[in-house]
């Protein structure tokens, strides 16, 4: 009987921990599944021709905050319109605003591999554009919400 109580206590203690384990890349059931959901959750406006490659919402600080992360592909010519319509200033060349650390444990997103980038930060929102392909670019978006 003591073993059962000990096991239950360990489970409860593990669930209430507020360390970095709470900040792992664990998409929840409210992760954006479409471009429209991403627009609603991240406060961005996507131009036509944008492809949502992947997106996730994760809980931070034991559920008190959330982070929405997305990886998009769009025509390079649409980037200025995307930034302006989403309330961002122009992206600054060589500004790496998003790194692999913004996507912990994802296994699939690697913004650090981008060699030519431009980025911009607006409060709790960050965008980085991978300019490695001149026609279609990869755009990373991270927003924090409380």
Summarize the structure.
By secondary structure, this protein is α+β, with helices and mostly antiparallel strands. Helices cover 20% and strands 31% of the residues.
Describe this structure in words.
The longest helix has 14 residues, at 2-15. The protein is globular and about 40 Å long. It is an alpha+beta fold and 146 residues long. It has 3 helices and 6 strands. It has one domain (18-145). A hairpin with a 4-residue loop joins strand 1 and strand 2.
What fraction of the residues are assigned to beta strands by DSSP? 25-35%
End-to-end CA span: 41 Å
Tell me the number of structural domains.
Answer: 1
Helical content band = 10-25%
| Number of separate strands | 6
- The helix-strand sequence is HHEEHEEEE
- Overall geometry comes to globular
**Rg over CA atoms:** 18 Å
Count of DSSP-assigned helices: 3
- Please summarize the sheet with the most strands: 6 strands, antiparallel
* Oligomer designation: single chain
Structural class: alpha+beta
Spatial sequence of strands, sheet with the most strands: 1-2-6-5-4-3
Give the overall pLDDT as a whole number: 77
Low-confidence stretches: 1-29
């Amino acid at each position: 009987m003591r073993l059962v109580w000990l096991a239950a206590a360990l489970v409860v203690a593990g669930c209430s921990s507020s360390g970095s384990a709470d900040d792992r890349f664990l998409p929840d059931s409210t992760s954006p599944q479409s471009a429209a959901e991403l627009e609603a959750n991240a406060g961005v406006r996507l131009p036509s021709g944008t492809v949502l490659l992947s997106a996730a919402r994760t809980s931070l600080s034991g559920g008190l905050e959330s982070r929405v992360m997305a990886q998009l592909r769009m025509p390079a010519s649409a980037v200025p319109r995307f930034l302006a319509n989403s309330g961002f200033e122009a992206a600054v060349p060589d500004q790496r605003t998003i790194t692999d650390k913004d996507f912990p444990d994802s296994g699939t997103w690697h913004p650090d591999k981008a060699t030519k980038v431009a980025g911009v930060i607006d409060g709790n929102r960050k965008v980085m554009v991978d300019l490695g392909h001149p026609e279609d670019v990869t755009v990373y978006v991270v927003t924090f919400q409380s």
